[in-house]
């Protein structure tokens, strides 16, 4: 049994932000505690509060204070660990050539038509072996971990056929370090073997989805809902079928065009709506009133030089928002959380508390994991990150990561 006592000079629990369900948060909702103590038993928080309120008798059932390892983290700032709720982590190859093309004025859609874009990554990923993909994904996962991420969502979507999609999900399941949440994204793009979207969705529904389910490779399904991708009544039927099979739904929606996807996906109780750049006024209200989390991915908007989602309007209407990198080789080849936070502050005018809550509680909610992660409270997972910096220094300097240590389920998983 792992028994630990952590002492902090300054701990932000985000308890009030969680009580507000991550909506309309301000500085006070970060719930600061000075001279704080946190007790963890087997990775779960047993007690948390000001050190002077702690009573040693609480630990009697576990053999008393002496049975506990004491960890002194005074001198550092501690926050709930970050959750990266949208990443395309498993892929081979690079698309740096397209970056230059896009800089010369060629559009993302034109590049896709020339056989570039997602399909070029699909070709490289299909060729790569499971062990090659795992080595690449593992290194990337550690890069996230070193920035304070202890829960990491990983999508498939660069296989686009049965064997390759299963290979990607299998690789995701073998990544060590952060807790991995795998998502099946077979409906990412139309593979070259299929000439129409409907027959590809038939194939996914009949051949691939049942295998993903039977082998327990993912509990979530994602779809690229946009013009030139998947946005038909057939696509809705596909999601409905996945839902009947027990998959939770999330979606890349209305990134490039407004196609009414938000309304349809909310009717399906999509856990998250990701990108949501091209929103109508009624869409914003619908999201704000729903239980779905708006996942904002400003790194992709930055790299594609497109407009940013209407974050301020979403937040002010009471939507729960998350932030994530959307790390992928095409539209966001960076894993840098500091860049995402700085873009959120500069380009979407999010406040620092909004950014911090979006990258913790909001992101956990986008994965349906807010009962365990996203804030530090009794009964939740003991996942936190310690910084060698003040709160206001976070998400300020791009590329600067003053992380001192990362704890996941009460264990230190990264030290700097
Ligand atoms: Zn994405």
Question: In brief, what are we looking at here?
Answer:
The chain contains 14 helices and 15 strands. It is an alpha/beta fold.
Task: Report what the structure shows.
By secondary structure, the protein is α/β, with parallel strands linked by helices. The protein folds into 2 domains: 3-80 and 377-415, Urease, subunit C, domain 1, CATH 2.30.40.10; 83-366, Metal-dependent hydrolases (TIM Barrel, Alpha-Beta Barrel), CATH 3.20.20.140. The chain is built from 14 helices and 15 strands. The protein has helices spanning 15-19, 96-103, 108-113, 118-127, 130-145, 162-174, 197-214, 233-244, 261-267, 281-289, 298-304, 311-316, 337-347, 352-366, and strands at 3-12, 32-41, 44-50, 69-80, 82-84, 149-155, 179-187, 220-225, 248-253, 272-275, 293-296, 321-323, 384-387, 403-408, 411-415. The chain has an 8-stranded parallel sheet. A 7-stranded mixed sheet has the order 3-2-1-4-13-14-15, with no helix packed on it. Helix 9 links the parallel strand 9 (248-253) and strand 10 (272-275). The longest helix is centred in the middle third of the chain and has 18 residues, at 197-214. The chain is globular. Bound molecules: zinc ion.
């Amino acid at each position: 049994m792992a028994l630990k006592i952590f002492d902090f000079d300054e701990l932000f629990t985000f308890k009030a932000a969680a009580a507000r369900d991550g909506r309309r948060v301000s500085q006070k909702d970060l719930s600061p505690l000075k001279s704080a103590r946190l007790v963890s038993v087997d990775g779960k928080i047993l007690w948390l509060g000001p050190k002077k309120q702690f009573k040693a008798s609480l630990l009697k059932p576990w053999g008393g204070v002496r049975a506990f390892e004491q960890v002194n983290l005074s001198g550092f700032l501690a926050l709930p660990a970050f959750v990266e709720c949208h990443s395309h982590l498993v892929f081979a190859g690079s698309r740096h050539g397209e970056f230059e093309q896009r800089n010369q004025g060629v559009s993302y859609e034109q590049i896709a038509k020339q056989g570039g874009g997602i399909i070029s990554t699909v070709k490289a990923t299909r060729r790569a072996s499971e062990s090659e993909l795992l080595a690449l994904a593992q290194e990337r996962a550690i890069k996230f971990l070193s920035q304070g991420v202890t829960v990491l969502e990983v999508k498939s979507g660069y296989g686009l056929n049965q064997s390759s999609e299963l290979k990607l999900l299998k690789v995701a399941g073998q990544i060590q370090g952060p807790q991995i949440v795998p998502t099946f994204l077979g409906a990412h793009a139309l593979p070259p073997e299929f000439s129409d979207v409907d027959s590809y969705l038939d194939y996914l529904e009949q051949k691939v989805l049942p295998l993903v389910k039977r082998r327990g490779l993912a509990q979530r399904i994602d779809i690229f809902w946009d013009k030139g991708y998947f946005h038909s009544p057939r696509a809705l039927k596909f999601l409905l079928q996945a839902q009947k099979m027990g998959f939770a739904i999330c979606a890349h929606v209305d990134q490039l065009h407004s196609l009414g996807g938000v309304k349809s996906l909310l009717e399906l109780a999509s856990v998250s709506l990701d990108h949501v750049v091209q929103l109508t006024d009624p869409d914003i209200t619908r999201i704000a009133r729903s239980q779905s989390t708006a996942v904002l991915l400003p790194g992709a908007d930055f790299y594609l030089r497109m407009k940013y989602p209407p974050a301020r309007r979403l937040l002010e209407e009471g939507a729960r928002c998350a932030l994530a990198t959307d790390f992928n080789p095409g539209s966001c080849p960076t894993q840098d959380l500091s860049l995402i936070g700085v873009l959120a502050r500069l380009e979407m005018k999010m406040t620092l508390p909004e950014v911090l809550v979006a990258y913790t509680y909001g992101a956990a909610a986008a994965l349906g994991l807010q009962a365990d992660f996203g804030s530090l409270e009794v009964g939740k997972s003991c996942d936190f990150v310690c910084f060698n910096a003040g709160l206001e220094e976070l998400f300020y300097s791009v590329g600067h990561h003053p992380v001192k240590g990362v704890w996941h389920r009460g264990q230190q998983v990264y030290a700097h």
